[in-house]
Input
Amino acid sequence: MEPIIVSGKEVSNKIKDEIAQEVELIKSKGGKVPHLAAVLVGDDGASVTYVNGKVKACERVGFHSTLVKLEPTITEEELLAEVEKLNQNDEIDGFIVQSPLPKHIDEQKITEAIDPKKDVDGFHPMSLGKMMLGLPCFLPATPFGITEMLRHYDIPTEGKHCVVMGRSHIVGSPMSVLMVRNAYPGNCTVTVVHSRTQNLKEITRQADILIVAIGKPQFVTSDMVKEGATVIDVGIHRIADDSKKSGFRLLGDVKFDEVAPKCAYISPVPGGVGPMTIASLLKNTLLAVKLKN
Output
């Protein structure tokens, strides 16, 4: 069977168009234009690409954006001072500190220093706590993006067995919470598998919905997927490839060509979950403005 390709590119463009219309409305009423800031420490290739994507997306929807570029040698204290400046700056509605941070900086400490009212990445303990309780909050950008993809394609989730591969606090853990909640998308029976799981294939083959965030290129093969499943691939890896102009190609955690023929729905890499993370950040920033007013 031909699977339906779950295109994050398509869904994110629709979301950006909706946000752009809302920004126009805010401007016409003389309201405050949303302002998103990103803090980039050092020059990690993937982080630079990602942050540039955020700046471009802000331009497209009519947001203001600020990029704070800092040296990789910055001390933890100096970075905390930069975070505090952004907390105090009334012009800025939401901001993110791009990870990974240099080894000498405690990422958790930086996350906790962000004002929860500006935590548009949704990683602050207060945001995650509210999510657990089903209270209005900033949802972590990638899981939020995945729920928007499921919604856009009207993929049934109620009563389905959802297997989440990976348990990071950025994707796996919050994803499992969102898929089990009493809402759509949600109402699934959720199993979380990880590096210590026994009988991995047996479990993944039971999944109606398989969300893969394991961080290993092409880890999931066709023998791990049941016929007619929905597969969402969160992984993204740069693999050297001299035949490409860029010198690399992008792969996901799923062996797409092999797995796709078994699926009802599957997200590609690139063009799947990636664009949705940025769209979710924009949605969260717009929400921050609304909550403030």
Q: What stands out?
A: Residues 30-115 form a domain with the Rossmann fold fold (CATH 3.40.50.10860). The radius of gyration is 19 Å.
